[in-house]
Amino acid sequence: MEQGRKSRAAIAAGGIGALLALLLLRRHAAAEPEEIIHGHVVAAEPPEDPIAGATVEIVGYASTTTNAQGYFKFTDIEEGFYLVRVTHEGRQPWEYQIYLWYGDLIRIRLYPYFADLTGVVTDATTGAPIKGIKVDVKGSVGVTKSDGSYTVKHIIPGTYQVMFTDPDMRYADATASSVNIPLEGATLNMQLQPLGVGAIQVTTSPVVQGVSIGVRYYTEGNWIVIADGKTNSAGQCFFDDIPQGNYKIVARHVDYDPVDQLVTVYPDQTTTTVIYLKEATTVPFLRPGWREKGTLAEIWLEPGTVISVFDAATHALVREHVLKYADRAVYLKEMPLGYHYIKLDVVRNPEDVQYKNLTTTPFLIARHGSKQYYDWGVVTPGYPECGVRLYLEPK
User: Total structural domains in the chain?
Assistant: First the structure.
């Protein structure tokens, strides 16, 4: 009450200036953060679940525990540098010297203690140790040494599926399910069955010499090439010493559409497969790009520029592309083979050099052949793209 009288007295004595000063003082006081130090303790591993019951200590000053949502707060600590220690059973302690501010939320991530998985991998037939086997425990990986031993580190204690794979494809993959790995670690030995080998014979229909044939094996999310070759005059390609398993046969030839085909190889057998080729009717990409006529300087055309491709015989529109952002070339997918022409309706920034619109004479879209030279540019047939360089003339 006394303070209120003093404030009114001050206003009466100082007039409007005192009133404004008082209002600013109260506004500043309202903007001050609440004098609370608070934070959130979560697990370091995704999805960063909150940790309840963790002990949070401002060493030498105060201590508290996190609530069910992992939050904590201190109300009797001033801002400043402190040594903060956070502990929780089953997790590594967190301890750092940090500056504590009122109002800031401190986010603290606690890492679990890690366990190790060890063991020996041997040949199921001979009992000999196997080197180079990959052992995977949910992304934590170890590789066997020359004595067959391995160690997988940084495993969060729990129950896992353990996968054994041979990158060199000498042995069949193996999986151990429901393997319990406690904090003190675990041992898991594994015997792998050696893979038998077979052969693959590929024949093309129609008979085409020079088709590139690849044998691909799926591992770790990718198809890797383990063997390749080209078909002979009989349209055949033979691969021996292929480990048993499932493979993808890929066939590529500039005059034919690509073909992918799955096959299975069995021990001591030859797997025969026929690749049916279809003559190509398109080029995977037509790539028009533009340069300045005479100087051959690169040009970046503005959004709104229209690239139109027409059939040379019928004048039918085959493809139209409008630039969404400034670019110096575009890729037009699956363009038909044969003679076409291009119309380019140019948009340029008014501050830049202006270029004339362009309509080309007919040119050949092809997968292979000699370069074609024109007054308006150059066409380079090829696979997987046919390149077209357009020369634009300044206005």
Answer: 5
